[in-house]
Amino acid sequence: MHATDAVAEARRMMEICNACRYCEGYCAVFPAMELRREFSNADLSYLANLCHDCRGCFYACQYAPPHAFDLNLPRTFAQVRTETYEAYAWPGVLARLFRHNGVVVSLIAAVALAAVLLLTTALQVPVVLYGVHTGPGAFYAVVPYGTMASVGLSTFGYALFALAMGFARFWRDAAAGSPRAKPSALWRALCDVAVLRNLSGGGYGCNDRDESFSGLRRWLHHAMFYGFLACFAATSVATIYHHVLRWIAPYPPLSAPVVLGTLGGLGLLLGTSGSFALKFVRDPAPGAPELLGADTAVLVLLALVAATGLLLLGLRASGAMGPLLVVHLGFVLAFFLVLPYSKFVHGVYRFGALLRYAAERASGGVRRPPAGEQ
Ligand code: SF4
Ligand code: SF4
Q1: Separation in Å, CA 270 to CA 65, 184, 226, 275, 310
Q2: pLDDT tens digits, 7-32
Q3: Which pTM was predicted?
Q4: What spacing in Å lies between the alpha carbon of 355 and ligand 2's midpoint?
Q5: Which ligand is in closest contact with the Cα of 56?
Q6: Which numbered atom of ligand 2 lies nearest the CA of 286?
Q7: Rounded CA gap, 165 and 38, in Å?
């Protein structure tokens, strides 16, 4: 991780917080901070990704603006996190995509959608594209299964590989000097992810809108996270149906892929639209306005994936199925393409930070000061 203005500012703030320690019950950042006397660039990258932007420390802080110390941890950590995404992106030549990321995500989505639309209309006759198709293989009459599977697998496979490489780079740098992560630490980190513990703001919730506490943001994140997992499970089950059982889509309304896909789509739609709305009613003071475009672009893209998927499910027995399938696939393709180069990566680095935190806690810390030195 390089030295930047945001990293230097985060260091200044952590040194003040380390003397104060008033917020130590709010989240994992403060106990992790207390294990250190000095903060390397990599430490600050780790701490910034451990921050879940609950904003509790901003409203609790006696040194927040207008105090001369101008302490605004949520904003500074958000800026450092974004620099982390660029620093660890793979391949490095694409790291610049994290700059002006809202525009980049929108452009890639538009190009992916246009490419799928143009190719389908060029290769498919209107009577098939706009026709009514029912029974096994109905979707594949419009877009052949081989095309759908090969494009989906190659782009998603690349995205997963790029994310794994980013994680490895982060771990090598931001977790250098960390105690070895044992299975118990891995379990603890997975539990923290599953319940989004650090969005509880010390038990009272986040400061979603202002200084009052609320659990709304945490629940919206749960809806997105589990909605995404349910959609992934639906696709996995459908793949087993297709290749192992030789049951060809579309599947009945009460089949596992449809039930999982419907629940997942609704969760995603609720989580993304709620989070999007929350962005515009939040107190802007602890936020980083320059990151709003990147934050909202991914939410809109994910909401469009979910909405078109649900519409496709509802209208699959009508003439709208063909165009809806093409539009849905265009948004899914865009999602796969931007996955490693957008705000989506925050989940990967947050997990890495939580894993390091769990490993440090399990071993008693990295560099505890000698007794009596405090
Ligand atoms: S954010 Fe403010 S109140 Fe909280 S630990 Fe830091 S200096 Fe203290
Ligand atoms: S914003 Fe919340 S999660 Fe981030 S450092 Fe402050 S209290 Fe911790």
Answers
A1: 34, 33, 11, 8, 12
A2: 999 999 999 999 999 999 889 999 99
A3: 0.90
A4: 17
A5: 2
A6: 1
A7: 28
